[in-house]
Amino acid sequence: MAETKSSMRKPVFTKVDQLCPGTSGHNLIVKFVSSNMVLQKGRPDGPQVRQMQIAEFLVGDETGTIVFTAKNDQVDMMKPDAAIILRNAKIDMFKGSMRLAVDRWGRVE
Fold first, then answer.
1. Backbone dihedral region of 4: left (phi > 0), alpha (psi from -120 to 50 degrees) or beta?
2. Which domain holds residue 99?
């Protein structure tokens, strides 16, 4: 069991200009630039109303910028002028442009 823990790899961080369409497993450190709320609505789930949110954030580093699509709890984690760590992010294509997303297997810190 000790061998398993010692064989874990350290994350390799990627820069925005190195991203390619259709790839996944990216770790990035980016800075929040601007935001745009795409969808915000309540959905009844039993006694509580669960809020569904989708927002687009322009994020970037010293090499470039990209649109990050955030959902639900990820939206609340994005703070203006903050550095954000995206783990296991993927690149989706939407209307001919690359979009960065973190699905349920990824993490926003």
1. alpha
2. 2-108
